[in-house]
């Protein structure tokens, strides 16, 4: 190797070697752990998109379902049973463009061979869609009386079934919106209980060890050994039949959380066992800190990011569990509606074949579950910001 190929490090006038450090690395080193997690999360575009989807779902279905409904969710229309979805159009059958969207009403006739109603679009009449128009009365946010709706037809009596109607002529779109309040909320309530139980017993088991650890782990193993659906079905069937819808709702949330905390508890135990022998924990013990202080100030905060990730990924399981129980007739009971109760009609094959739009509530289950999974993946990656 020639001397020209050997390059000595640059030396400053004081005789010290200069070290060139990337400004981006210097900036990263100056960030706190929370800032690193925030930076890593916002780099995940899929997680951000999933977050926006969930925000839209919660605004439309949990906070303001009546505002976005086109009909009262329990209103029956015997003249429009199993009406197919109406297509929202901007172009009419002649190819003319309309700035305001519209739908074609249906003409209903009884087929005397099959004894089923047949719907044919009436192309001679357009029903224009108006935004923020007036419809049925309700309480906005549960406080203010109003009749303003996000969209609807000029007359409240006109047929407007975006997703079709069910066997009683009830608007499936409006029922999906109202059912989302239950299905999306039961996941949050169940996960809140799961996080509380899993964090408490997992931390207690991992930190204390000994006989306490053995007892808690045996309880967790017993819970995890039960098959999920039969256990939930048995507990749901044990609920009193005379309970109100609200009590059944919270009962279902507790039932789902009773088993799900076991998985989180075992994972938190593993995290806490590694933290228990760390230097800062030993220093706290030597300094005379109590067990409660160490748990609250060292164990739980260090495991908190992992707890949040597992909690986020548990919400889809809660939604699916509630949907499965309600689908089997063991979950939410009328007059409350959930996505599972709406899918109960799809148990009959002939109904699904003849009226496939009855399965549309299942699409919202898939959307919500995927959105929570993508969001949970984003939190999981952000919880370990040094990996990227």
Question: What does this protein look like?
Answer:
With 388 residues, the protein is α+β, with helices and mostly antiparallel strands. The chain has a domain at 174-387: Orthogonal Bundle (MetI-like fold), CATH 1.10.3720. The chain is 55% helix and 12% strand. The chain is built from 13 helices and six strands. The protein has a four-stranded antiparallel sheet with strand order 1-2-5-6. A two-stranded antiparallel sheet has the order 3-4. A hairpin with a 3-residue loop joins strand 5 and strand 6 (144-153). Helix 6 (210-225) packs across helix 8. The protein starts with 22 loop residues before the first helix and ends in a 5-residue tail after the last helix. Residues 1-8 have low confidence and may be disordered.
Portion in strands: 5-15%
State the shape: elongated
CATH topology of the domain at 174-387: MetI-like fold
The number of strands is 6
Query: What is the first-to-last residue Cα distance?
Result: 37 Å
Please state the structural category: alpha+beta
Count of helix runs:
13
Order of helices and strands: HHHHEEEEEEHHHHHHHHH
**Strands across the major sheet, in which order?**
1-2-5-6
Radius of gyration: 29 Å
Helix content: 55-70%
Oligomeric state of the chains?
Answer: single chain
What's the CATH architecture name of the domain at 174-387?
Answer: Orthogonal Bundle
Task: Please name the fourth-level CATH homologous superfamily of the domain at 174-387.
Answer: MetI-like
What layout of secondary structure does this protein have?
Blueprint (H helix, E strand, L loop, with lengths): L22 H7 L3 H10 L2 H19 L1 H4 L20 E3 L5 E7 L2 E6 L4 E6 L5 E14 L3 E10 L18 H37 L1 H16 L2 H10 L7 H32 L2 H8 L4 H37 L11 H5 L5 H6 L5 H24 L5
Helix pairs in contact: 2-13, 3-5, 3-13, 5-6, 5-8, 5-10, 5-13, 6-8, 7-8, 8-10, 10-13
